[in-house]
From TrEMBL:
It is found in: Cytoplasm; Secreted; Synapse. One of its GO terms (cellular component) is cytoplasm. It comes from the Eukaryota. The lineage of its organism: Eukaryota, Metazoa, Chordata, Craniata, Vertebrata. Gene3D superfamilies: Ribonuclease Inhibitor (3.80.10.10). Residues 1-27 form the signal peptide. Keywords: Cytoplasm, Glycoprotein, Leucine-rich repeat, Repeat, Secreted, Signal, Synapse. The keyword Cytoplasm applies. This is Leucine-rich glioma-inactivated protein 1. InterPro entries: Cys-rich_flank_reg_C, EAR, EPTP, Leu-rich_rpt, Leu-rich_rpt_typical-subtyp, LGI_related, LRR_dom_sf. Its main location: cytoplasm. GO terms for biological process: myelination. It holds the Pfam family EPTP. Residues 166-215 form the LRRCT domain. It comes from Echeneis naucrates.
Length: 544
């Protein structure tokens, strides 16, 4: 009986163990994820059709997953963290148009990713983050016009990328792809540019990084000066850079210098004056002179006394000739120093002055009674010229007579009445002038060897300045306005014309000047009715 009892107990234990084992197995089968609604699952594959979202549960042995004609509009981040065993993922004929950041995180074994024949127009820069094992990526036949920079970063295993059937715009935003194609081990099928016009129809595979001109520039606000000014002049004296502003209401010439520690422009010195309209610096034999033109009280010439560290008045300018000065230009001819003052009064006369070693004396009166508003010195065919703008006649061109050592009237610029000022610039050996009109059309004209001919017109709305500015390889023309925003135009070498590039908010601008210092470039803008502004010229890489 003892033996029977032991046998019975052993049999009961075996039955209990078997039952527990069976129940445990049944429990595991119950917890095993089923194939989601809308999907068909086989041993290791799953195909989902017309689903409205990415399911989060699949059988654990699924390594290949496909979505066809699905209704979701984007692949959100972390959509596949619950299916880490996937090796192949395919999307085709779906309606989604966005792939979000981290969309495929948690797929360390994924080798093939096909996103084809969908409506994708945008991909996050980090959409493919974490796909280190991926060897084949297809984004074919979508609506992609560009790809974010470095979207393939970290995908070192890639051997094939398919971008066919998209409308890729081969501009600076896609320059990185051209660079990437030249150093990656992955192969790409032939794909073509849908734009811009310069690259339209070309094979992206044939482009080079230097096929793109992606460096541009802009003027960024840097410093605001708490005074009004009517003009601005930059000059170098003793290897240092200075800027001077005439302030007609304060009655001063204000000089600024660069603070290399604070990285701002600070006050250097001032010359007290009355109703100042021009403070024109002029360096002769390492001596600094400043022509201070005033509406009242006569005009004067100051010299910088380095030992006393101040400006000293050395000469008065003939008040009978210069009654209402409006502009001053300095220049050199055959090693001799001159300046010319444009006089805008009825009784005054625009006059050229010459340095004789001790002072400046009247060298030539150009013409009386014409109310000149501006004078510009320039060389035409290597010969010195002056262009006088006047409120009573068209701009007049004077040419230097080397025999007589005087300026002779040469011609005027036809059909250009009411020009307030003329400024010149050069592009690739050609000579151009900007002509400013207060109301109407300001113009750019080119010298054709015999006359200035119109190239381009610009609508002027209260413009007192249309000034060319050259910075490195960039040529600008800045059209000020008393009634609207100041327009910055940039020279386009392809069309040989200016194109609009920027707007600046300056109250009543009157002049602009460029200063280069500490490997930086600044644009000074004088304002007659507001704060004088300083802008920094910044390089911008459009491919970043």
């Amino acid at each position: 009986s003892l033996l029977l009892d032991l046998a019975h107990r052993r049999w009961t234990l075996l039955v209990w163990v078997a039952a527990v084992t069976l129940l445990s197995a049944e429990g595991r089968r119950v917890r095993q994820p089923r194939c989601p609604v809308g999907c068909i699952c086989t041993k290791d594959n799953a195909l989902c059709e017309n689903v409205q979202s990415v399911p989060h549960t699949f059988p654990s042995d699924v390594v290949s997953l496909s979505f066809v004609k699905s209704g979701f509009h984007e692949i959100t981040g972390g959509s596949f963290v619950h299916t880490p065993a996937l090796q192949l993922l395919l999307f085709t004929a779906n309606s989604f148009d966005l792939i979000d950041e981290g969309a495929f995180l948690g797929l360390p074994h994924l080798e093939y990713l096909f996103i084809e024949n969908n409506k994708i127009a945008s991909i996050s820069p980090f959409a493919f983050r974490g796909l280190k094992a991926l060897i084949h990526l297809s984004l074919a036949y979508n609506n992609l016009e560009t790809l974010p920079k470095d979207v393939f970063k970290g995908m070192d295993a890639l051997t094939k990328v398919d971008l066919r059937g998209n409308n890729l715009i081969c501009d600076c935003k896609l320059k990185w792809l051209v660079e990437w194609m030249h150093y990656t081990n992955a192969t790409l099928d032939q794909i073509y540019c849908s734009g811009p016009p310069i690259h339209q129809g070309k094979k992206i595979n044939d482009l080079l990084p230097n096929s793109f001109d992606c460096i541009t520039a802009e003027f960024a606000s840097y410093q605001s000066l708490k005074f009004e000014s009517i003009s601005v002049e930059a000059f170098i004296f003793g290897k240092d850079q200075y800027i001077v502003f005439p302030q007609p209401f304060a009655g001063t010439c204000s000089f600024l210098e660069w603070d290399h520690v604070e990285m701002t422009f600070r006050t250097f010195d001032t010359i007290e004056s009355t109703s100042t309209v021009v403070c024109k610096p002029m360096v002769i034999d390492n001596h600094l002179f400043v022509i201070v033109a005033q509406l009242f009280g006569g005009s004067h010439i100051y010299k910088r006394d380095s030992s006393a560290n101040k400006f000293i008045k050395i000469q008065d300018i003939d008040i009978l000739k210069i009654r209402k000065p409006n502009d001053v230009e300095t220049f050199m001819i055959d090693g001799e120093s001159f300046f010319v003052i444009a006089d805008s009064s009825k009784a005054g006369s625009t006059t050229v002055y010459k340095w004789n070693g001790n002072g400046f004396y009247s060298h030539q009166s150009l013409h009386p009674w014409y109310r000149d508003t501006d004078v510009e010195y320039l060389e035409i065919s290597n010969k010195p010229h002056l262009i006088l703008s006047s409120s009573s006649q068209r701009p007049v061109v004077y040419q230097w007579n080397r025999g007589q050592k005087k300026f002779d009237r040469r011609t005027d610029i036809p059909e250009m009445e009411d020009v307030f000022s003329v400024k010149h610039f050069g592009v690739q050996g050609d000579l151009f002038i900007c002509l400013t009109r207060f109301i109407g059309d300001s113009k750019v004209m080119r010298w054709d060897g015999a006359m200035f001919k119109e190239v381009q017109t610009f609508p002027s709305r209260g413009s007192m300045v249309f000034q060319p500015v050259s910075i490195g390889k960039w040529q600008y023309a800045i059209l000020g306005s008393d009634y609207s925003l100041t327009q910055v135009y940039q020279w386009d070498t392809k069309t040989d014309q200016f194109v609009q590039s920027q707007e600046l908010n300056i109250q009543a601008p009157r002049a602009f000047s460029v200063v280069s210092i500490d490997d930086r470039v600044f644009l000074f803008a004088s304002s007659f009715k507001g704060k004088t502004q300083i802008y920094e010229h910044l390089m911008i890489d459009l491919s970043n």
